[in-house]
Amino acid sequence: MERRLPTRQEVDSYLRERRNWGRWGAEGRYEFMLITAPLKVVGGTGSPVNPIALF
C-alpha cells in the first residue's frame, strides 16, 4: 500500500474538529495571526504545512 500525504482540505478539517478555543478565551485572547508555512521539499510541487499561531 502506497502512503500519501493529506491534502490541505483534509488537514483543515482535522484542525477544525480538534481545536480547543476555550483556553484562549479564558486568557482574554480572541485574535491571532495564523501562518501556514510550507515545508521545504526539493523538487516538490506541494507539501504539508506547519501551522503557527502568533498572539
Beginning-to-end CA distance, first to last residue: 41 Å
How many domains in all? 1
Task: Report the biggest beta sheet as strand number plus sense, adding barrel if it closes.
Answer: 2 strands, antiparallel
Helix % is 25-40%
Question: How many E strands?
Answer: 2
What is the oligomeric state here?
single chain
The Cα radius of gyration reads: 15 Å
Query: What general outline do the C-alpha atoms trace?
Result: elongated
The portion of residues forming beta strands comes to: 15-25%
Report the total helices. Answer: 2
Based on secondary structure, the structural category is: alpha+beta
Strand order in space, largest sheet: 1-2
> What is the average of the pLDDT values?
80
Low-confidence stretches: none
Order of helices and strands: HHEE
Record the SSE blueprint.
Elements: H1 8-18, H2 22-26, E1 33-38, E2 49-54
Antiparallel strand pairs: 1-2
Description:
The protein is α+β, with helices and mostly antiparallel strands and 55 residues long. It has one domain. It contains two helices and two strands. Strands 1-2 form a two-stranded antiparallel ribbon. The radius of gyration is 15 Å and the shape is elongated. It starts with 7 loop residues before the first helix and ends with a strand. The model has no long low-confidence stretch (mean pLDDT 80).
